[in-house]
Structure formats: structure tokens, C-alpha cells
Task: structure prediction
Amino acid sequence: MFKKILFLLLFLFILAHGAWGIDTEKGVVYYNAWEMDKVEDIAHGLLTKGSLKADEEWFLGLFYFYNGNYEKATYHLGNASRKDSNNKKWSDFYTFVKATGEITRDFYTYESEHFILRLDGKDIILADYALSALEKGYWEVGRDLECFPSRKVLVEIYPSSEDFNLASSLSKRDMEVSGAIGICKFNRLMAVSPRCLAFGYRWLDTLVHEYTHFVVNIKSNGKCPLWLHEGIAKNEERRWISNEKRNYLIPVYSSLLKEALDNDEMISFDRMSPSLVKLDTQKEVTLAYAQVATAVDYMVSFYSIGILPEILTELKENDDYKKVIEKLLGKKYSRFQKDWLKFIESMNLTIIPGIMMDSLKIKVTDADYEMEEYLKGELRIYIRLGDRFKKKGKLKIALHEYEKALKSHPYNPAILNRIGKIYFAMDDLIKAEESFKKAIQMNPNYVSSYTNLGDLYFYRRDFTRALDNYQESNRINPFNPSIHKNMGLIYYSNDKEKALREWQIAEKLTPRDLELKGWLMNLKGK
Result:
């Protein structure tokens, strides 16, 4: 089997070394610049020919591949490989495209005004949420970057980590160490289903993040440097939520930035290229995201959001991004970097001892991933004792064991949630709420905190706040049937259509739930 690294720039090698009767140099430029309309002109010219040479077949195969038509791509790439049977690179790439087509063959397709979404039958519950978030992102990101793609953007969500690895050319290591669970590549957005990760992930933010990369590529003709690319995407990824400010500075980012500044361990922008996924550790990747996000935040804070589309537009004509920044910011690039570091220092960041990074563990079995990822070492002694006492109904003793664990790890979200659930069971709702909120404050991507806090508010009949937390939970792990059941109950009084959607999703996840079937029959009967 061919090496996956071949996928990244293989098509450029092929185009650059072609000898067909079309303008190959322009073809290379158009692909690099994401100018698919111009590539299409060349492809349509080839389609008018009666007989095609091997390299012309290859160009057409690439064109169809980049437009997501795997059947036609395979046809032309196969023809090219047969006409030039000694070209192993072509043969390998043909095998890759054919395999991608086989993975996606039975995908369901959903469309909205600006997007085409393809996904597996196990993941169809994602469709409505995904397209809604992407459409909102289309307008918000578009307004910020002054760019609205005219063609519908292809989005593919893969049903397994292995399928995503193959189609994206990312490895399992890239996913778990660097958090690369989504990618903008091959003229489309690709992501792995949140169902595949032990704790889910912010999949809607990821889709908008990758869409932002798509827009940046178009706006800059593919010339935006990696650090700026990622910084813009990080700042824009939650813009699909209408009331969401650019609050990217979660506690782990703050802590890592402060530590890096104090120890002179900031990662250079040059080292981040060609991709953050190639940094050595999850800590380095997380720090890099924090750095590039603050760099873009600095620009926006001092020059307005309009500075970003200006830079991207200027990059179309000038490959030297440092000169572009100097021109538009009115200062030397070295001065920009110094001012950016001062901007970070002005945030008065603090190091949070024991702060935990998100786990992006791939789900393989029914193992206790929470114990493996969040409750390691000596913590397990207290936690397991607490769990046993809780199971026996000895809540105060269980709470005592959990609090022992919390003393050494005061910001651990798994411990805080266990404590919160004990207080909830003891009907001490104030302390339960405090525990869940502290867990969210310290780790805003840990899904159980939102689910548990939503349940608490639902119990108190505070349905507005319950819905807010269930929605946040759904943005991380949408495969929890209980949140859909409760969201349906909340919607039922004033939005029967949304109630129906949530209960239908819950039914797909728990088809034997008789209570749910009764609700659906009653709702449909009305």
C-alpha cells in the first residue's frame, strides 16, 4: 500500500510533470490558488475531445476528485493508469481515490443553500445540526472575512476513525495527539463523527473552523501562512453561535501561555509549518493554537476585524506575508511580534496547577475511558472506593472519598462531576450546581458537566437554562438520547416541530424506548 504522505501534494507533482496538450502551468496555478472555476474551464475543454491521452485522463480524474465525484474520478484515473501502466504514483493515487469512493458510496446526502453534506446512516442525526451551524457560519465568517463562496461546499463526516484516516491522509496519532479530527483538504471539509471519540468533541465548532480555512484559502488564493490560517479559524470557529463573542481563551490556553512566556518556551511561527499536527506533543499543539489565536486577537483588537480581509486580499498579490503585515499594520514584523507578546502579558494570565487538556481518545471498545484518561494513578483508589459506596447508597462516605481525590486535583472535571452528582442525589442543589459550574469553568469541553447541569436545571424546572446546557452538551456528544428526550419535552410547549425532531433523534438512538414511542404517537396524532 502506498504511503499516506503521498496524498498531500501528489497532485501538484503530477500536474507539474505532465506533458499534455493543455496549459499545465496554469492548471497548477489554479489548483494551488483554489480557483476551481478556472480548473473547470480546462476540464470542460478536455471533455469536448474525442480521444484523451493518459495525462489528460489524469487531469479529468483530479478534477472530478476535487469536486467529490468519486465515480467519475475513478473512471478517468483508472483510464490514465492503464494507459501509463508503469506510473506507480498514478496507480497508488487511483487506489486511494477508489478506496475513498468505496467508503462514501452508501453515504446519505443532505443539502442546504450553501453546503452539500454526506454522511453514514449511523450519523444521520447530525445532518440538521451540521447544516444549520454551517449556514450560520457561512454568513458570520463571510461578513468577517468579506468572502462568500458562490459554489456549494462539500462536507463529509466519516463513520470511523479508520475511514477518516484514509480519506484525509491523517494518522491516528495526528488525531489523538494533535486533535486533528477535522480537515479542510481536497476542496472539501472532512471530519470524523463525534460518535467515534470516547468523550465526543466540539464537532460543530470544528466544521465551522474547517469552513473558515476554506474561506481563507479562497480569499488569499491559498497563500495564507499556516499560523495566520489557524489563528483566524480559531477565532471564527464559534461565530455560528449568534451571541458568541471571540472568547477562545479557555483556562488551559491561559495557563499554557503564561507558562511558555515565563519559561521562554513559545513556539515560533516557522516551527508550526507546514502543519500543527506535526508538532511533538498535545501540549505543544494546544500551546500553538493559543498563540495563533492571541496573535489574530491582537490584530482585531487594535485594527478592527477589517484587518483580516485586507491581509488576505493583499496576500493574493504578495507571497511575503511579513511584508504584507508590515504594510497593513504600519510597523516592522519584529515590532508586531513584540507588541503581540505585550498584548498577551496585558491579559494577566495565571498558571493553573494540574489543569487538564481535552482528551480526544478514539473509542475502540467499551472500556472505562474516563478512568483511563482523567482518573489516573493514585486517584483511582479514592474514586473506586467512592463509586462503590455510592452504588450501595452510602452517599456521604462516597462524597468523602471523592473529596480526598479533589484535594490533590482540584480542577479535575471527572471528580467535580462525581461530587456534583452526589450533592444532587442528596438534594443539595446549590452545591451540586457549584461543582458542575466549576468543572465547566476549568474545562469547558468536558461534556458530562453540561449534561449534569442541564439535568439539575430540568429538575428545578428552570427550562431555559436546562436547554442552554443540553444544547452545549449536544455540541460535544449528540449521541446521548437523554438530552434529546429532555430537549423535546422543553420544546413541546411552544415548538412542536423541534420537539418532534429531538424525539425522533432519541428514538433512533434508543429504538426500544416505549415511553418515547408513546410521546411520538401522541405528538404525531396532533
In short: The longest strand covers residues 153-158. The chain has 27 helices and five strands.
